[in-house]
Amino acid sequence: MTTTPPLRYLATAAVSCLLLAGLSAPAAQARPARSTAKAASSHPSWIGPGKLSQAWNCSLTTGRGTTGLAPWPAAVRGRIGAQFQTRTIGGFRPGNGRSDHHSGHALDVMVTGRDGDRIADWVRANARQLNVKYVIWQQGYWQPGMSGYRPMADRGSVTANHWDHVHISFRTGRGSCPS
Ligand SMILES: [Zn+2]
After folding, report:
1. Range of the structural domain that residue 12 is part of
2. How far is the CA of 121 from the centre of ligand 1 (A)?
3. Within 13 Å of residue 27, how many CA atoms lie on the same side as its CB?
4. Residue 56: how many CB atoms within 10 A of its CB?
5. pTM for this prediction
6. Which of 77, 107, 131, 143 is the most interior residue, by most CB within 10 Å?
7. How many domains does the chain have?
8. Ligand 1 being an ion, which residues bring their Cβ within 5 A of it?
9. What is the C-alpha to C-alpha distance for residues 48 and 154, in angstroms, rounded to an integer?
10. Biggest distance spanned by C-alpha atoms of the chain
11. Does a structural domain hold residue 33?
């Protein structure tokens, strides 16, 4: 058995996020038990250790740079990496569809279990300040103003159901750093 290369892994996550049309449709299934989530394979760092302290300040980049992300999502990516010591955060995927991944306005934070809970909870608690449009985590959809996650239909895999990554979509423009 070979380890899935991280780039492909993230691309798979991004693709799964493209399949989320029909979010407004009520989901019939309950969220599956946590035990069904597989552990993510290990990944090399995407954010170098030297950049972590700088990233804490949500410093804006001057352009898309090497991540393909819009400046504000790129800044939040750095902040999440610094605050949660999470190194595998992708987001941009080339294409012309309406996915926020195509426009550089979505992040996929590759985590499972409590690590994902902590990140998703922090993003939700600071969503308006962070200019977040919505979050998908563990087969649940959340947007600012909602009290909790709305269950989503089973899309057939751990990745497609967001048990191995937190998806964060951003509105256009920028936000500011939570203290
Ligand atoms: Zn995604």
Report:
1. 6-17+39-170
2. 17
3. 19
4. 14
5. 0.73
6. 107
7. 1
8. 17, 108, 167
9. 35
10. 46
11. no
